[in-house]
Amino acid sequence: MNLGRENHPELRDAVRELCAQFDSAYWQKIDEQRAYPEAFVDALTKAGWMSALIPEEYGGSGLSLTEATVIMEEVSRSGGNAGSCHGQMYNMNTLLRHGSPEQKTKYLTKIASGELRLQAMGVTEPGAGPDTTKITTVAVRKGDRYVVNGQKVWTSRLQHSELMILLVRTTPLSEVRKKSDGMSIFLVDTKSKGLDVRPIRNMVNHETNSVFIDNLEIPAENLIGEEGKGFRYILDGLNAERILIAAECIGDGYWFVDKACSYSKERVVFDRPIAQNQGIQFPIAEAYMEIEAANLMRYKAAALFDSRNSCGAEANMAKHLAAKSSWEAANVCIQTHGGFGFAAEYDVERKFRESRLYLVAPISTNLILSYLAEHVLGLPRSF
Ligand SMILES: Cc1cc2nc3c(=O)[nH]c(=O)nc-3n(C[C@H](O)[C@H](O)[C@H](O)COP(=O)(O)OP(=O)(O)OC[C@H]3O[C@@H](n4cnc5c(N)ncnc54)[C@H](O)[C@@H]3O)c2cc1C
Predict the structure, then answer these.
(1) Does residue 281 have its Cβ closer than 6 Å to ligand 1?
(2) CA-157 nearest atom, ligand 1
(3) C-beta 362 within 6 A of ligand 1
C-alpha cells in the first residue's frame, strides 16, 4: 500500500528501488547470522543516500533533514533495518553545524565517497545513561593532543565505522558553573590505540559495544567546536537522531499495517478471511491512525530542525509518538498473524524485536515525559 507516501514521491521511489534489491531473505540471513548488512550499507552509500546531508560542494547530495528522514523511513518500510546505518545521518549534523572548515574539508568528501564512515557516537556510560552531565570519561590536554580515559557503553556500529563522535569531560563536574559545561566532543579514529571494543549480544541484531578507553590519544585538531561546549553541540545531533528515529518507527509502523492487512485478507479461518472480522480490522485501523498522527509531528519537528528553530519538544514528541505507534502496530501485526507471527520467515518477529528498542533508546519514554513536563508544561523539576 502507498499510505503516508504523499511527500517526496521521487525520492521515495529511488530509495525503494534500491531497497527492493535487499529482500526479506537477505534481512533474515543477516539477522540469523548476527551480521552487519555490509552489502546494503555499501549500496546505500554508492547511491548517495548515506551522504544525503553533506553539502554538494563536498560531494554530498545537500538534502534537508526532512529528506534524510524519508530515506530512513523507506529503509524501515522496505522490511530492512535502518538502525544499521542511521548513525551517519544524525552524527553528520554535529560535524556540519559545529565542525571547523578544516575538519569539513578533511572528512566530508571522504565520508561522501564512502571511504570513511561516521556511524558511531559514544555518549552513554555505564554510570551515566540519560544523566549525561555525570559522564566520567575524561580528556586531558597534553601539548598538541588530548589523552582520554574512561568507559562508554552501547556504542553502536563502532566496528563498522572509521570515525566516532565521542563526548568526554574536559573540566571536572565539581569545577563548572553549570553542570552541562565542561564537556567536549571529538572526532575519533576508531582504529586508534587505546580503544578496547567488546560487543554486547542483544535482543536485536544491532552492532553495539562496551568501549574501554585507556590512554587514547586524540590530536587537538579533532576537537569539534570550542572546548567545554560539547554538550550544547551534541544536543543538535540528539534532536536530529530523535527525528530520524521517529521516521524509522513510522516506516516500521506502515510495514506492520501493510503486513497485517495483506495477511488478514489471505488467511481463511471458519471459511472466511480473518480480515472480515471487526475484531481483526479495528486494531489495525487504530494502529494506522496513530501512525498517521505521529507522522504529522515527525514532519513538524523535521521542518523546525531544517529552519534552525528550536525543536527539542517536537523532536522528543515525534520520537515518543512514533515509537509508541510502531510498537502498537507491531503487537497488532503479530496478533493478526497468530502462530505464524512467530515464524522467522514472515519477518514479523524480527521487526517486532527491532521496533521495541525505540521505546528505550536513544531516550526512554519516562525521560521524554519528564522533559515535556518540566520544560514545556513548567511543572516542578523531579531530578
Ligand atoms: C541497542 C542499543 C543501542 C544503543 N546505541 C547507543 C549509541 O550508539 N550511543 C550511545 O551513546 N548510547 C546508545 N544506547 C544507549 C541508550 O541511549 C540508553 O540505553 C537509553 O538512553 C536509556 O538509558 P539507560 O540504559 O542508562 O537506562 P536508565 O537511565 O538506567 O533507565 C532505566 C529505566 O529507568 C527509567 N528512569 C530513569 N530515570 C528516571 C526518572 N528520573 N524518572 C522515571 N523513570 C526513570 C528509564 O525511563 C528506564 O525505563 C543504545 C542502547 C541500546 C539498547
Answers:
(1) no
(2) 8
(3) yes
Amino acid letter for position 210: S
Residue among 364, 379, 381 whose CB has most ligand 1 atoms within 8 A, to mutate: 364
* 312-336 and 348-356 helices, crossing angle to 10°: 150
Q: Tell me the C-alpha distance between 295 and 6, whole Å.
A: 12
Does the beta carbon of 122 lie inside 6 Å of ligand 1?
yes
Q: Is the dihedral of CA 275, 278, 279, 283 positive or negative?
A: positive
Question: Which residue's entry shows cell 572528512?
Answer: 107
Per-residue pLDDT of the chain (383 residues; tens, 9 = 90+): 888 899 999 999 999 999 999 999 999 999 999 999 999 999 999 999 999 999 999 999 999 999 999 999 999 999 999 999 999 998 998 999 999 999 999 999 999 999 999 999 999 999 998 899 999 999 999 999 999 999 999 999 999 999 999 999 999 999 999 999 999 999 999 999 999 999 999 999 999 999 999 999 999 999 999 999 999 999 888 999 999 999 999 999 999 999 999 999 999 999 999 999 999 999 999 999 999 999 999 999 999 999 999 999 999 999 999 999 999 999 999 999 999 999 999 999 999 999 999 999 999 999 999 999 999 999 999 88
How much is the pTM?
0.97
Residue 113 buriedness (CB in 10 A; 0-12 / 13-18 / 19+):
middle
Query: Is 359 a pocket residue for ligand 1 (Cβ < 6 Å)?
Result: no
Q: Where are the beta strands (DSSP E) in the chain?
A: 120-122, 138-142, 145-156, 163-169, 183-189, 195-199, 208-219, 223-224, 268-269, 272-273
Q: Ligand 1 center to residue 244 CA distance, Å?
A: 18
